[in-house]
Amino acid sequence: MPFPKYNPPARRAYDIVIVGGAVVGSSTAYWLSRKLGENASVLVVERDSTYEFSSTALSTSAIRQQYSNPINVKISQFGIEFINGFADRMAPFYPNEPAPDLGFREHGYLYCISPQGVDAARERVDLQRSLGAHTVFLEPGPLKDRFPWLNVEDLGGGAWGAQGEGWFDSMGLLNGLRRAARASGIEYIDNAVVGMDMDGGRVTAVRLSTGEVVGCGIVVNAAGPRAQQVAAMAGLSIPVAPYKRYSFVFASETPIPGRMPNVIDLSGTFVRPEGELFLTGNTPLDNGPADYDDFSARHEEFEDRIWPALWHRIPAFDALRVRQSWTGHYEYNMLDHNGIVGFHPEVSNFMFANGFSGHGLQQSPAVGRGVAELIVDGGFQTLDLTPFRYERIPANEPFMEEAVI
Predict the structure, then answer these.
(1) Is 317 within the bounds of a domain?
(2) How far apart are CA 110 and CA 262, in angstroms?
(3) Residue 268 sits in the same domain as residue 207
(4) Closest Cα partner for 157 from 177, 143, 171?
(5) How confident is the model over 62-85, as pLDDT tens digits?
(6) DSSP 85-129
(7) For the whole prediction, is pTM greater than 0.85?
(8) How many domains does the chain have?
């Protein structure tokens, strides 16, 4: 495959090789640089240095605290802290220009709840609030009072996150992390890992598509939707595959008054404001995994599934015009919708940072920090991400996350 700016690796071997330089890989590189300084050699190999097909660039760039697992709530709370303090954290790496402000739009999330799902939704809200989130459960009457444009006739209520939820600049986050990591001595190259050399239950080297063989002490799999492809190079398997996410930007003849949150319909379709326009999309799992290089659009997805769901939930959306669309990939963990973080128990220097099922962007600050802690400190020092360990995969012991969109 051609690379935009081919630059061979500067060394023949590195202490750490990170496969994948999008937001999870770059967060890992950033936190390693904070912990190690220039005391270790770290190489980040990114096959798509333009990030044209990166899940980071093609994501909907949102963050929420509405999860069913306490650890995911805590991960997002750190993510929000990281986003809000990003400009100050990055300031040393932007000496001659303003550090990036990620433009966090704290409009919240609104989950539509079916009548059958009310008890479970109330339990999730109670859990989230016990951890410091500001989620509230609104019955249909109060829900309609607060959001009069919403059709609540078939709802049992709504779970609304009034604070600490919203959307932000995904590429601003990635570019800042990359810049900070590179300024601290982390090396990035435009290339692809196509194979691994093994010896005695360890990865001894990675093979690049341009022919170089690069020795390594530790390999971090941060390959996003290609996670299984990379794991297979070390003879390993994880239940992670790319699924298409269809996104559409549209205009509506009828404006929506007030401060509109990110609305999650019962159908799984979401919609939120983008200035005077709106962003919507879905991830139809019934279509099955996509090919790694298949980013083809399905324009009829809007007409067939998304618009009917929007019109039903928000009747003011009766006259819409699509302005833009794109297709991205989710790295979907088919076992339990949660990330896989940690070393393999047998291939002892192979680290997983995979399978975040559409939440990789918002979870990247905490995950990158956790991976760096495992590598440098030998264990988690801040958030305990042990429930994400690889060992649950071969044991078929799901650590389920119910709130997946």
Answers:
(1) yes
(2) 6
(3) no
(4) 143
(5) 999 999 999 999 999 999 999 999
(6) THHHHHGGG-TTSPPPP---B---EEEEE-GGGHHHHHHHHHHHH
(7) yes
(8) 2
